[in-house]
Batch of 2 targets.
Target 1
Amino acid sequence: MGSKAKSAARRARIEEMRRAERARERRNRILTITASVVVVVSLVAFATYLINSAADEKSTVSSASAGPVRGEKTWDPDELSRNHVTEAVDYPMTPPAGGDHAQAWMNCQGDVYDKPIGNENAVHSLEHGAVWVTYNDKAAEAEVKKLSEKVGKTPYTLMSPLPDQPGAITLTAWGHQLTVEKASDPRVEEFLGKYVQGEQTPEPGAACTGGIGSA
């Protein structure tokens, strides 16, 4: 092979090597850009998650610290005694929203009772931060069913009939009470969210199991 042919072959090899190098550089640039985009998207997604979480927490705190539920009745905590008694208590409101009560509480971990329960036992459950849902024959069967399904899924609640209460459906927490006509009333959810283990609870964290009764 002549010198010209060798020189041409050498130039061809060099050009091929240069093309391969340029191709590698392009691939590396694409990989670098792709990785950078993934990192940026991940950071944006994480920042969005943190912002939304903070907003949700703020919303929850604001809801919990809001004023009383529209239409609810309240009693001064200092007027609601907390003695354990063995005799029946003559409560000034129906259902009772606090006061002296029995040594044993009613189970209130979403327990639904189909017969009336002892007021004194239910009040002890309220002391533990439970919300007691009661109803009489003014409440439609469909509404009672909706309420029982909601209570059954909500820890620190209990439900039972209470024939002599004035309203169709009543929700009671320690020192707080709300009467509604339907389970779909948005104040039901508001009351549960505010008072299930709410700030009014005399004994926060106390058990809602290990008492008496069964669903």
Target 2
Amino acid sequence: MPTLLDQMGGVSGIVASSIPVGVFVVANIVFELQPAIIAAVVAGVLVTVWRIARKQPVQPAVSGLLGVGLAAFIASRTGEARGFYLPGLITSGFLAVAFLVSVLVRRPLAGVIWHGINGDGQGWRNNPLLLRAYTYATLLWTLVFASRVVLQGLLYDANEETWLGVARLAMGYPLTGLALLFTIWAVRRAHRASADPAV
């Protein structure tokens, strides 16, 4: 049975789904709104065609294309580049709330997602050390999503389109990478502690 990561097309699928957004951010800084919208949509189509040609799962690329299509539609209708970032802001806000609530109900999403990706089941919740590690990791992810909403939301309200695009890129993979590294470190540390009979 394919894991969640397999269904997402692996790491390359996750990266591919975000390429159109990166193209829009750069194109909007260099050019104007309409060329940026066109460039982002074209990038989404090219990524989808490329994955089909390589016989790779297209679902991530199609999801990314639909997402960039929605963002492009909003930007086009509002006539403002900042409209392109509105779906991402709403998504980050939703994720911040979802991750925080998951901690409060003692089902931290970092653990649910981690074991969903690896196909390991949800027995980890019976291990206090793992539950604590995933709780800390989930709180960090909550902070990541919340910081995006706060900072990018302020830039959105101030209509600072260029800095909003820069913030979108800077707070994308870099922050995600740091949170992922912490999650991996915390989980591996908890696994080692669980295996130690002296603990």
